[in-house]
Amino acid sequence: MTARKPSRKASRKSPEVPAEVAVETVAEPAAKTSAAETSAAAAAAPAPAPAATATKAAPAERARKKRADAGPPRPRQAGDGQGARPAPALDGADRGRLLAGAHHAPHDVLGAHPIPGGVLVRALRPFARTVTVLASGVRAELHDDGDGFFSGVLPVPQVPAYRLEVAYDDNTIEVEDPYRFWPAIGELDLHLIGEGRHEELWRALGAEPMVHQGVAGTRFTLWAPNARGVRITGDFNYWDGTGFPMRSLGSTGVWELFLPGVGEGALYKFDICRPDGSHTVRADPMARRTEVPPATASIVTAKHHEWQDADWMAHRGDRPVHEAPFSVYEVHLASWRPGLTYRQLAEQLPAYVKDLGFTHVELMPVSEHPFGGSWGYQVTGFYAPTSRLGTPDDFRFLVDALHRAGIGVIMDWVPAHFPRDDWALAEFDGRPLYEHADPRRAAHPDWGTLEFDYGRTEVRNFLVANATYWCEEFHIDGLRVDAVASMLYLDYSREDGQWSPNEFGGRENLDAVAFLQEMNATVYRRNPGVVTIAEESTAWDGVTRPTDSGGLGFGLKWNMGWMHDSLQYMAKEPVHRKYHHNEMTFSMVYAYSENYVLPISHDEVVHGKQALVTKMPGDWWQRRANHRAYLGFMWAHPGKQLLFMGQEFAQGAEWSEGHGPDWWLLDPSYGASGDHRGVRTLVGDLNAVYGAVPALWQRDTSPEGFSWVDGGAAEDNVFAFLRYDADGSPLLAVSHFSPAVRTDYRLGVPETGTEGWVEVLNTDAARYGGGDVRNEEPLKAEAVPAHGRPSSISLTLPPLATVWFRPA
């Protein structure tokens, strides 16, 4: 819980913190270490003690007045006779910059430094009464220099291992001095950050609990190249960062400070002095955990989850995704079962998805976001799972549970834009930093957000590292990249005069292209078995072509054209569908131009678009029949498939993030529950047959895996086609989108032997809520030419149904 601000009367009182923390026993500082080395040390070390570096916050004016009332500073006497001599006066410019939070090198002024005749120690401890240096054989009280500064010269030949005893009006605490530590980030990390090539950026920037120079604490690092100064503020210093200025580490724009005694659970932000001297307090862009919105502080965290999914991780890449079954259940975690935490979801979601036979779940964005109504698509915490449902380790637990149930996890990832909240990324250090400097390229015209500057190496690094972070730290199996089209085009949703062309005069955002290529190449290189999926709604060429061939490098692409055309066809009354027949067949013209996913996503069942079953024409029976027939067509069509939650049981109402799916429709006490349970049973059977029949997925991206039997039966509202597996074994899919029963309907079929063709799935079956018009016996192929084939079968087509056949 955030500490409360003390009253003016308590300006010299200390926070209630333990007086003992880990003691440094080595006089010389340790060598500089890389982020990887310090992270490893933290993993092996005990958890840091509670913060003892805190000082009580109160208005500086009050503290200065109390000092003035007490008269000029008086010399201090050391308890053992070894007093600190007066130190040279602090340069006025340094003093002013430190008090203003605008100093770039506080370690040059604060801490211990050898000088002729001893060691100068200077501390900035606002609201303290006294500060005393404790070292082996030395107890020296420092002189009060005013404004919270204390200094003195110790009569010792070299810098000792020392601690500070800080006395307030109500307490005395013993603490480590943050300004005696070397930087806790290595030169290699800084070099890679400067180059924009740090693929494990989360190990170098942000808040990292660790043991540094033998002391437990947290290293804070921040990229803020335009800042004049940066201070750390948090619940460990009562949100007054005056005594915690960070140091600049040179041209990389990185600021750093190691705070001993600050550990997991501490709340923090960065107080940034902007180029104009004003201040802004910001959450950590690299925070791995945040407060629950609407609170906005970042939280120091470390991972402790022990993964149990080694077998899944070892084998998830055994088969290329485009040659594997891939059936996706899209979920909004916060509303799937409202009120459940990550761990509670882990008890229910894997079993539900496994029972339905989906191979993967796709999670709508889980990165932290301030506004729940954005469904996670306006992200402020790109490295933090939303705290609404639990901790990062809780989210790991959910992913682990899904993997142990044999279910892959895809998450929506949103690198296209970010919101303008003044505590987050917008003009982060006083100038455009994460967003483009050109307002025409920074402002997203549709969502009131800001677009990333993909041409800046550090910003691109922030996003590329973020993509692989989710895969490596949370074992995510796929990233569905949101709003790719808005990234690719400079004129996206912009009128003439509102955009500027690229260097070649075109409308392509070449920086975004380079970013997407780098992201895909990095993710695939570092994470075998992971797939990236583009939500790209235009005809951009080569979305799923490899980057070394000039493509964007995605593994799959959402087929927005198929979704739009097929839903438009299904919305027509059957009598009018013959005039729109090509809307169902056109997808096969371009089916092999990319590796496609067929999505019926959340976007299609909100904001007046109606639920899937409600889009269908006719009475309730016909709507359900259309719904079932459409799903049968979708599962048989080349490409992978995705279905949003609630549509698996024909929910009639649009989805709302406020209450989620209408689970009550499945309650046996509800009179029509059988209708909804029948559709859910169908989805389970579709996935079961799909997974067992390689013809439905093995050659999704190969033209040899598909053949029309009859794609032109517009008058009958019939679509008949064959799917083939790698060995040439066929599956015949026939979709009939008319309410009439058609008997003796002849279709040409390939020669397959003498046993005939048998139904393996019929969406009109009684168990699904249909009329149960079936083809009970194997259908013998006859030597009657049809549809360009020498043999054919005669079958009965149920009304508004899809039927699948296989050779007996």
From TrEMBL:
Record bears the keyword Nuclease: no
Subunit structure: Monomer.
Record-annotated active site: D482, E535
EC number per UniProt: 2.4.1.18
Keywords from the named record: Carbohydrate metabolism, Glycogen biosynthesis, Glycogen metabolism, Glycosyltransferase, Transferase
Annotated InterPro entries: A-amylase/branching_C, Branching_enzy, GH, GH13_cat_dom, GlgB, GlgB_N, GlgB_N_E_set_prok, Glyco_hydro_13_N
Function of the molecule: Catalyzes the formation of the alpha-1,6-glucosidic linkages in glycogen by scission of a 1,4-alpha-linked oligosaccharide from growing alpha-1,4-glucan chains and the subsequent attachment of the oligosaccharide to the alpha-1,6 position.
Highest taxon, organism lineage: Bacteria
Protein name, entry field: 1,4-alpha-glucan branching enzyme GlgB
Listed Basic residues bias regions: 1-12
Reactions performed catalytically: Transfers a segment of a (1->4)-alpha-D-glucan chain to a primary hydroxy group in a similar glucan chain
Organism: Streptomyces sindenensis
